[in-house]
Amino acid sequence: MAERRGPILIEDEIEGPRASPGDAPPVPDTVDHAPQGQAMRTMAALAARRGSRLGRWFWRVAAALFVFILSIAAWSAIDALLAANPVLGWIATVLVSLFVLLSVLICLRELAALARLSRMGEIHRQAEAALAGGGDLAQARAVAGRISALYAGREALSWGRTRFDERRGDVFDADALFHLAEVELLAPLDAAARIEVEAAARQVATVTAVVPLALADVAAALTSNLRMIRRIAEIYGGRAGTLGAWRLTRAVMTHLVATGAVAVGDDLIGSVAGGSVLSRVSRRFGEGVVNGALTARVGIAAMEVCRPLPFAAQRKPQVHTLIARALSGLFPGGTREG
pLDDT tens digits, residue range 253-266? Predict the structure, then answer.
């Protein structure tokens, strides 16, 4: 029997009209499907989370016990070396002494950074009190003197500080005095802080859009925001150390979480709209835009916390402006400032 060649036809026994892809209902395009910046929300929740008192005391006692056991072990090892080989024993003694000395210096630097941050916060509170008290000129001049002394070692602000010192004696109004300080001293610092915020927003958006690894966007958001807040504090004169930067980050995140600012608000409508459009091309792109916008919002909050004076003469940066400058040309059809 010869082998049959050609197509094999199978009869369809389905009766009635056939369904086509055009009959399928469209995918709903609602706000629930828009990117919400989950990485930044998770990062803010982790940074603002405060452990229980029992847990904090546990880690303090555990750290003290670890240092105690390490000290006893080092002392025993050095004593044994001195008995067995005096040369090696003295080398170990010198190395341990240098380690202890450097540790003490690091602790002193951290304490100095915390004290400087506290001094910055005190200046900010005094400025708000002077403005709230009907414009107390004497208190405003005291605050202005502290701000001028704070930036005495800044070579880049020497010209503005000279102009401020020459003109502040001719000002007899608290609001005008603070306006003069903002224009002459804080305007260059505001510009530098905005650059840091834009760089952090760009980095978070890029990592979210490009790196597909799980929790990579959360790690990138946490490290980028920590670095951004620390740099903003240094720009305004805080010079935060490791502990100071973490403390400042927790203060900023706690404020944002308490006020519900780590969410989609009026200043994020444009960014979310851009993210929704990009999410049709790639969901990661849409999340990147929203995460970058939330990072910009965190940066603005950090500027308000670290700035010696509240925004008055200088306009407070807007999220849509920062994100437009940061992400312009980064994504296809990305956000552009109008």
Answer: 665 665 555 554 44
CB 117 within 8 A of CB 248: yes
Q: Please, how many CA atoms are within 13 Å of residue 119, restricted to the half-sphere of its CB?
A: 15
Alpha helices, H only, the chain = 38-48, 53-84, 86-132, 137-150, 158-167, 174-181, 187-210, 216-235, 242-258, 269-281, 283-306, 319-327
3-state secondary structure 227-278: HHHHHHHHHCCCCCCHHHHHHHHHHHHHHHHHCCCCCCCHHHHHHHHHHHHH
* Triad 48, 49, 51: Cα angle to 5°: 140
Per the CB < 8 A criterion, the answer to whether 235 and 338 are in contact is: no
Q: Where do the DSSP E strands lie in the chain?
A: none
Dist CA 296 CA 199 (whole Å): 9
Report d(CA 16, CA 47) in Å as an integer. 61
CA of 21: how far to CAs of 24, 289, 325, in Å? 6, 32, 42
Of 96-100, 131-135, 218-222, where does mean pLDDT reach its minimum? 131-135
d(CA 121, CA 137): 20
